[in-house]
Amino acid sequence: MEFLIEYGLFLAKIVTVIVALMVLVGFIFANREQLRERVQGHISVTRLNDRYEQFKETLLEALMEKHEFNQRKKQLAKEKKAEEKALVKRHKAAAKGKVSKEASSEADTKELQRDAASEQSEKAAGTADERKRIFVTQFNGDIKASGLSHLREEITAILQVAEAGDEVLLCLESPGGMVANYGLAASQLARVRSAGIQLTIAVDKVAASGGYMMACVADRILAAPFAMLGSIGVLAQLPNFNRLLKRHDVDYELFTAGEFKRTVTMFGENTEEGREKFQSDLEEIHVLFQHFISEYRPKLDVAKVATGEVWFGQKALAMGLVDELKTSDEYLTECAKHADLFQVEYKEKKNIAKKMGLAAEAGVESALTRLFSKLTAWRHHAQ
Q1: pLDDT at 117
Q2: 98 an active-site residue?
């Protein structure tokens, strides 16, 4: 029995070493790849109307009798053909309305004016019949706002073709993170508004701190009833090991040029003056954060909500943090009835080294999650 226990422990050690080596190798390869020139990505566009229509037709095919479903397909094909003919007819009518600019007589000038007025009315009628275009993109944020590089490319691509009357919908999920990174992400969204394109942001789960900094740029913010929004504040924390180092007779020397080049450190002895300066810097960032929100949401009582608190959808709506309670799925399916939806994604090719790094990271994260779940269940059982 003792031999089996020792053998089991030996196997556990071997497995631990192998997993650790895999994580290390994956980490090394992933970081080496980051040092190389980034692989050129590409823009991928998916028409969401077709996707929703496919869902609908798949269900109807299962629910309806075969002959009924075939009749439905024929009817839809006729309607689509009629719409295409009507569109071609409108374009031809608009083309016939054009006249030569070489007319010089007074009669020709009057006729030209009448034709121009007719052409404008036809264009107006055609515009009314045209479907609105909505460009859909996503941002899933972490502490470093890692999705920023993709967001920049997607916004740049959209602005190449977007026109007045179009809309950009960003499905945003982020708990916030580094100030400079999220400030730049918010600036990317500001490009959309500067171009005169309507910007809508939908929050299904969370848009807090830097996430809300991005959300507030929108013309309209949608939030799910239990989405978490707010956290308008600034946070910084770090451990200090100075007493531990002194206890073991370890000196830590820090050399700087400039009175406040380093205010607080992890290993040195922090001074009260340094702490005050660090706190002053945080307060200044907080003020800038509030001013930024006030610029885009002037009706919001920023002083009331800039406490660092987080509110759920219903309360966020009452306080003016959002404009409407609605999930992104609900909004998209509603818009699909009268608009053309195009999901825009910037995709990069991942080589083997990066895939190994991501796989190792996912494996460690999954193992830690399972361990935490088991410990939680064991604790509840013990109680």
Answers
A1: 53
A2: no
